[in-house]
Amino acid sequence: MGEQFWTYLFVSLTFGIYILIAFWARASTTKEFYVAGHDVPPILNGMATAADWMSAASFLSMAGLIAFLGYGGSVYLMGWTGGYVLLALLLAPFLREFGKFTVPDFVGERYYSKLARVIAVVCALMVSFTYIAGQMKGVGVAFSSFLGVPFNVGIFIGGLIVFIYAVLGGMKGVTYTQVAQYVVLIFAYTVPAIFISIIVTNNPIPQLGFIGNIAGSDVPMLSKLNSVVTELGFKEYTSTTKSNVDIFCITAALMFGTAGLPHVIIRFFTVKSAKAARKSAGWALMFIALLYTVAPAVGAFARMNFIDTVNEATYIGNSENFEERRSEILSDGGKPIPGWYKDWEKTGLLDFNDLNQDGIIQYRGPDSKDNIKNEIVPNRDIFVLANPQIANLPHWVIGLVVAGGLAAALSTAAGLLMVISSAISHDLMKNTFYPNMSERSELLIARTSAFLAILLSAFIGAFASSLPFVAQVVAFAFGIAAASLFPVVVLGIFWKRMNKEGAIVSMLTGLITTVGYICYFKFMGGVEAGWWFGISPEGIGFIFMIVAVFTGIIVALLSPAPPIEIQKLVESIRIPGQRRT
Amino acid sequence: MEILPKNQRLYWKSVQLFTAGLLSLWFLTSFGAGIIFREFLDQYFIGGAPLGFWFAQQGAIYVFLIIIIIYCLGMNYLEKKYGLDN
Questions:
Q1: What pTM, to 2 d.p., does this model score?
Q2: Which end of chain A, N or C, is less packed with Cβ atoms under 10 Å?
Q3: A83 CB within 8 Å of a chain B CB
């Protein structure tokens, strides 16, 4: 099969590149292992951050999610980019000026407390493990759907690759492979997008096609889409069924969560200075925006194209000869299903159930006007994956898209592994339990914990296929990061009076409330009618973040001010050039 | 507790003010134009897209990028102005 050949070629080629980079960028000191020696150029760190940040979900699922949600999908677009403004303005430069290795490092020293450090470690580990399991699962899916490799073997291969460059190269190896992975993934994403934009709107730039007219007409693409989907019984594409309050809270939780995610924050420890950290945040957002402004266009085009080609199309069964049956239908003046439909049906991403037994696929929304029931449920990942075929692109483009999806998953997994390994070796072992440990043993423990973390996450990822809630728990990662880590870090920089007591209470408040709310409504039978103020578990992190900020401030004001040397430390990270010794 | 040199105090004041200004812009374009005022803005169009919807799916991201660029330039200027750029 042509496609499978190209997929094998691209995947092994890119994997080979990652391993070569890993050998070239081996880490030999803890400084190199944790923060790539503090000397990554801002533009490269921007690329690495973008790859680190954009996971399998951004690459494969986001455009499809937007295609279904329409305006409702905006929460991901604004939420996952707006966090970078907070990072650049409130965190990254100051944490870089502070000049240590990890987020718990900052919490532990700023709040002069081992307990605070350990709580921060717990938060960082919870966030990272929930996130990494999803990545490993994505790797398994990619391997099993495209390379004919069993799911668990796929996870094993992916884990092995990450193991080689993360354990060997540490942050240095991870950084430079992420740069390569960014190039692979952005190329794989934009090439099919350009072609599908030309097909739908005759404009090669997806962002312009998005606001342009349908090819060969003077009807705006979005107006056409609105009228087509309402005709089928869906809500208008540019509006939503969700309440504004919920949209607001989810967007905010994703933004503050992004800014509080340890694997994103530590990327800014790898550059030379606070100034470089600011610049690097700008580059990161630019590289991310390249994908994030294309995704809504891909989503809209894909929805349009899907309705055009699949709705009211005559189904061709597996027992029939596709080409023969197809020309038969065409000569009868009918519309046969497109060729890509059969390829993707095999993967289980399209599910057709002919309820009225007429052999024709009817796609309908909940308010269907002709009382016909919906007969097809497309998986959201299909839109990015099938794009190259929908756009009639050559076989090798599919191979490229698979390599891109793997690049997105592996780069994020590696970034998370660095957080897990440094939290254990640096924050727990070195700074909490064995302060006299030598650099060599610390490095050994860092590598060992990275290894164990891969094993554990591969294990969770392998089991995840049978656990339906894995996609749901990502809400945890953002909620916990927003409600537990973000407040103490920002208050630690901008409010000198914030003290140990306030920080500990604030972190615990944010952590316990968010985890409790999400667990109750996701796993313990809580129903939508019971949501507080109509806020979904995805958005609740924002509310509890505000609660955590205020409890932290009140407790701090009721207890003694932090010692003078801590107040001086805070001053020194605000003013450039004070901490260089 | 000794007081910081005057230039450092003034520098930090300006940084806070500057940051607050940019964060208001951040809030107005995303939560403002993209969510709170979306329905109102949707009566206007940019190309073929309703304006509020466009802000939520495109415009806000561009503005975020511009905010960070302005921040970088502005911070360089402030560091120079208060003699803290070496």
A1: 0.91
A2: C
A3: no
